[in-house]
């Protein structure tokens, strides 16, 4: 038998070790302080492997030993801890007219948030320059920041670094995010489609979410979806899967900039709602001069006050959000659908109408086994999704961040 | 540190070994005769691991040593081989009115095929009984058969064992496939939704298909989809994901038995085509008395003869097949879409119209990077999908079939 080259042998061991390191970090992240024995039991790893890997993680400063904790049979054992407050990431969320930059700890606690000036088609490049400056300033002032995550509207072409379709503000299409940011800072940068970033945020930061089949349904300036199937984020060949906003709900319906007809986004995005509001007889005074988000929030405020016309309009929109939900059931069969971003701020009246549509149109076995909730993360905190992208990379590929080998 | 229980330690080692065994078998399956060094290099496994695992696989009779093969630097080394003709599986495909039972070798070569008498709503239970008898007969006569794979129409509720929706022939809904078949034979039985089975067949048996992002688009008595994303079959929480036939293409369209409105299946399944043919002024004489498949094939024959009305009707249907394709692009972004089952027999005229719709409606970057082809497996061979379900299990979980530990 020929021997393999040492490089291959090493690669093999490195791959397995990195996978085990990642599993240990994820266990500590999700379960808090744990003993080596508890980790070994949960992950079905040998005590020897745990001892070796945790020693290197402690040496590299990634995890720490805490005082004794109660083990099984009342034996005391040393606890291990991933100190989520010790490391930080920057999240940058791009949402056409709004760019937000936040600093987060690993648990998803937001330490600062910076809303950049409203972006117009003319100021896209100024905004890019501002992001460079601001991120560099943040990095210079806080050595604990170890990565930048960015969430960009889909369909985002991962390999190319460009957004394929932007319904308004065409200048965004010209931005190559990879070229602009991939090697721009002292820490690694990770880019993800925004709804997929949102799914990661729900998965990491919401303690009530335990599903391995999770869909984050972003209804905001765009309409998007991030779907986790059995623990794997569905990506597609180019990273352009789960683009629910461009799935047609009416093949004879409204044309969309993407080339398709009847795209869901044309019926229930913040922009579509803004159009509906503008078309009323002054339901929201001055709505024409508002941003999409402002117009939506003004509508939702009227709904809360009991305004009948406003509530009628909201129900109309909610039915379309519901049709999107029905498609999510049949295309992805998640066990939990989280509705987030601007439009989800409409709250209970929206959710009730969505559930009504789902009750009418979804197979009962699927409906019965699926939870639909509003996101527990506030819309301003949607930038948390961008942070979650970076944190996920840290948990999955620790050796990129620390010398743990 | 507390020691883990021996059971956990064992489980850990067993999991890793099974995974490596599986990877070695899959390598031999896809690449043919290989030396231990070639396998070690391709899989980044240590020579020691390869030696140990292949020794056990040889001992258990799963793989064999062949004569010397040419290694690197002209050194000779011993070849290893998975003899795909030595092991056999039974595939059973359920398609409402047609049930087929085939015997296959591991390479997907069909050794026998049995079309059961056309099933009506009244003969569903007789058919179940016949399957029991026929499979037992096949197993009694061929000791090399080591598993049964079954492909059933979706939405198939994997945990419960039932089909959730059947648009015609309601008796099928009462069949619990798990209860009927899971423990019925001397070999293990594996069940899968039919389009997902088709995706596995394309992935395993078609040498031209190398994509890790593959969609098999089944357009037959039902309309279904099996999607492989980065090598993982998308399942959903209950196994009811990728039910493209019940994704609405028109939320104000035709009602469907599933409760949804405008389901794709209502526009381009073999049954929908049959209805269209029946509604013509005798385009296909005697069509009302035909099966759906017969009516479709009669229509396609007329198309080939150049009949204008027939071609017009086909183009109309093909546009709907195309709308489904557009949804597949935006929901799953595969790099290869394979169109299969009865309707795909319409051939080039169908495919051309589907491509026309896709050219009109899909983002160019996605369109440019995605291949759409007709299945190379003939419709009768669609039962190969059922066989592929069993073969996939063998390749992924060899210890279920052989004592290799």
UniProtKB/TrEMBL annotation, chains A, B:
One Pfam family, please name it.
ROK
InterPro entries found in the cross-reference section: ArsR-like_HTH (IPR011991), ATPase_NBD (IPR043129), ROK (IPR000600), ROK_cs (IPR049874), WH-like_DNA-bd_sf (IPR036388), WH_DNA-bd_sf (IPR036390)
Highest taxon above the source species: Bacteria
Name the protein family. Belongs to the ROK (NagC/XylR) family.
Instruction: Cite the PANTHER family for this sequence.
Output: BIFUNCTIONAL UDP-N-ACETYLGLUCOSAMINE 2-EPIMERASE_N-ACETYLMANNOSAMINE KINASE (PTHR18964:SF149), ROK (REPRESSOR, ORF, KINASE) FAMILY (PTHR18964)
- Annotated protein name in UniProt: NagC family transcriptional regulator
């Amino acid at each position: 038998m020929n021997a393999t080259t040492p490089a291959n042998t090493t690669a093999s061991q490195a791959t397995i070790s990195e996978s085990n390191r990642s599993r240990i970090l994820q266990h500590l992240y999700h379960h808090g302080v744990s003993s080596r024995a508890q980790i070994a039991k949960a992950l079905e790893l040998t005590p020897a492997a745990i001892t070796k890997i945790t020693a290197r993680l402690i040496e590299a400063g990634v995890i720490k030993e805490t005082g004794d904790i109660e083990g099984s049979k009342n034996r005391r054992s040393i606890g291990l801890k991933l100190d989520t407050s010790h490391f930080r990431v920057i999240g940058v969320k791009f949402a056409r007219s709004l760019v937000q930059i936040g600093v987060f700890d690993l648990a998803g606690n937001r330490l600062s948030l910076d809303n950049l000036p409203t972006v117009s088609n003319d100021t896209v490049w100024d905004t890019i320059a501002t992001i460079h400056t601001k991120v560099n300033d943040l990095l210079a002032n806080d050595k604990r920041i170890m990565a930048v995550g960015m969430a960009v509207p889909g369909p985002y072409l991962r390999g190319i670094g460009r957004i394929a379709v932007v319904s308004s503000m065409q200048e965004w299409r010209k931005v190559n995010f990879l070229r602009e940011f991939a090697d721009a800072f002292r820490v690694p940068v990770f880019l993800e489609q925004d709804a997929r970033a949102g799914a990661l945020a729900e998965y990491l930061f919401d303690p009530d979410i335990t599903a391995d089949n999770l869909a984050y349904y972003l209804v905001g300036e765009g309409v998007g979806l991030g779907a986790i199937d059995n623990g794997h984020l569905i990506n597609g060949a180019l990273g352009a899967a789960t683009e629910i906003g461009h799935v047609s709900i009416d093949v004879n319906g409204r044309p969309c900039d993407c080339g398709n007809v009847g795209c869901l986004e044309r019926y229930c995005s913040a922009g579509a709602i803004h159009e509906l509001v503008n078309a009323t007889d002054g339901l929201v005074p001055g709505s024409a001069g508002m941003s999409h988000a402002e117009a939506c929030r003004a509508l939702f405020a009227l709904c809360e006050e009991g305004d009948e016309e406003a509530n009628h309009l909201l129900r109309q929109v909610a039915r379309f959000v519901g049709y999107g939900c029905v498609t999510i059931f049949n295309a992805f069969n998640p066990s939990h659908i989280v509705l987030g971003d601007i439009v989800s701020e409409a709250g209970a009246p929206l959710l009730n109408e969505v559930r009504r549509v789902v009750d009418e149109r979804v197979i009962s076995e699927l409906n019965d086994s699926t939870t639909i909730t509003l996101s527990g993360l506030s819309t301003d905190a949607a930038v948390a999704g961008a942070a979650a992208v970076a944190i996920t990379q840290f948990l999955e590929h620790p050796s990129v961040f620390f010398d743990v080998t």
